[in-house]
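In this section we walk through a basic example: taking a raw amino acid sequence and producing a predicted 3D structure, encoded as discrete structure tokens. The instruction is simple. Fold the sequence below.
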Amino acid sequence: MLRETKVENGRVKGVACGWPSITAYYGIPYAAPPVGPLRWHEPMPAADWQGVRDCARPSARCPQLGVQPGGFYEREFYPVAEPMSEDCLYLNVWTPAQSAQEKLPVIFWVHGGAFMTGYGHSAHFDGEHFARQGVILVTINYRLNVFGWMVDQELSAESEHGVSGNYGLLDQIYALKWVRRNISSFGGDPERITLAGQSAGAACVQALCSSPLCRGDFAGAIFQSGGGIDALPDMQYPLLAEVEEKMDITESLGVQNIAQARELPAEELLARWLKTMPTTKIWRTPVIDGYVLPKKSAQIVYDDETAHVPYLIGFTAKEGIVTTPTPESFVQWAKQAFGEQAEEFLKIAAPTPENFDEIKNSLFTQCLQAGTAAWALTLEKQGRGPVYVYELTRDLPGDDKGPFHAADLWYVFKTFMRAWRPWTGRDFELARDMNTYWANFAKNLDPNGKGLPQWTPYTAQKPEVMVFGNEKTEMQRLPEDACTAFRKQYLLNP
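The resulting token sequence is shown next.
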């Protein structure tokens, strides 16, 4: 067992997992604490330490608003309130390696949370089951909300690249490069790193696949419920210059300049931001800055400039509600999404008070289905791929919520027994299948393996996806309603 090893900043000591041959290392610093003058600055190298660093416990998460107490997602994923600190740039490693001489594949996991919440050591991201399959799992913390996405002209002026924002993405890139330099100390192969993420984490992984800053640093990519070609207008990140014109830190934060903003305690800064966030939503997403992200992700795909690697991408059958509270706001959403073709789309999806709930409840899933198909077919046209597509349709036991947004996490990590739901034998089968497919993809850039139904890439000739359903796991051609078909054709004809 590789219980102790050396990384670039010093020696680290891990702890045994439930499976005794697997070692977990929690809370390894990959960058300097982003505090004081390093708040809203590109990540900087972590300091060296003397002796052996005890990595038995996770680090604090980035300051964030807690999930709604007693709400749905707290019940599902966040039963414990984890400590928070602006000093949050740490990562976790689960390895089955017996020595540093092994060259095992690696999954680099980016958590979701709408760019505002989440952390890499949440209970459902435990890497033990991937490690039991011979795959090293790395999970990371990165800057979120006002700490991760702050845009301001003064910040751009002080940057050597003339940009601001995207600090969360820069953290992810910095962590990825740290893993490239150090994963061999854990028995990993730096040439066999697969990026993976879910929701906003999937959107971030897609951004990394679009960024020239980490080109060649990974071998494959997995998007769960957050990837594809402009699946939602919210994923169509704005230009940095447009954001700078709208931002006013004096009005929003009650300070005169960035120096004063950096002096605010983290808790106070977060509180002020949350108070004004409804009018400054632009802070909570990446921006097209010409440095981290050279142009819109859709255009990068169309221009054949996204990373030339295999992809595994998918979604759940009931992703949830897009925030369009009224039929009128839905019309505005459609105009933003489709421009001149919005009128044609609204003839298909004409919102009325009677059908509006049904429309908005299915919209997110429709968008992800269409955006995923368009991604796969565009890459196929360019002679690239393969792209393996899936859908989770399993109705989780315990309530009538169905396969909701993020429901696949319990199966992919095989940590479903940590949830409250009364799981059945079918759930055990699904967790086995999904965890094994994902592990195989990390090993071979192909999810297929012994004892599993054959998973073929999504192509124009065979537009089929792997469906993880109530009774079986099998390839199917998904039905397309009129809205989904419209959006797919719109995306395929830019």
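Looking at the output, two observations stand out. The first helix runs from residue 72 to 77. The first strand starts at residue 4 and ends at 7. In the next section we compare this with other chains.
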